[in-house]
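Input chain follows. Return structure tokens only.
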Amino acid sequence: METTNVRQVVKEKYGEAARRVKSGGNGCCGATAASGLGCDPITSNLYDAAQMRQLPEEAMLASLGCGNPTALAQLNPGEVVLDLGSGGGIDVLLSAKRVGSTGKAYGLDITDEMLALANENKRKAGAENVEFLKGEIEHIPLPDNSVDVIISNCVINLSADKRRVLREAFRVLKPGGRFAVSDVVTRGAINDDIRKSVLLWVGCVAGALDEGEYREKLATAGFEQISIEPTRVYRLEDAREFLSSAGVDVEAIAPQVDGKFMSAFVRAAKPASPVCCGPACCQ
């Protein structure tokens, strides 16, 4: 699928999710909305009660992620955090609390409706150290070496140019900066017909990289200390309702789905600045 087509479909579906929240519904990673704060086995039950109490309800309802990067990422007071594909702003707002008034939390999104919702949630939360930016995760509108930590919640897999995303993440991170994202990854071969489904792509599944390929792309971009930690492995029965609602013949694809898709926490680091050994490296 061409990059421009994927981007347009993502913008349309996520814009629709934002409008649904504004009208009193909730966001949904899959094809249909449902009641409650989770609507499929990917997006359900990711945040604990204490985190939910810290945020406007609309931020929770707009959550489309596959994990909780703010619970697993190391964030320190005074740091600068960037959330790639920030949606309604839940992970940005949670990160802002952890980096404190001396830190800064950026959210980056391409969808006007989500950005409007995120800024409204920022206002309701009274978050003064938060800024939402419009742009593509393949072209991050921030300077080189300006961010301490990059987080993301089930968004990088939606990009048709993941190498570019990871190169951009590496560029904006400071030396020694951390990459700490939740994403959907796969284990083993997956039929191309499933991967090419636009509906599943926007449903956080079809764009997923194999975990080995994810490691390779991170290393190629320059990252080190790479690790991929499964946080939720999807079984067929867990996903049956979700896949059926997307018009998928569940029994036909069972061997290619059961246990082969998982949410994972992906960690990596940008190498620290080289130790200065003489005038040449100190200039």
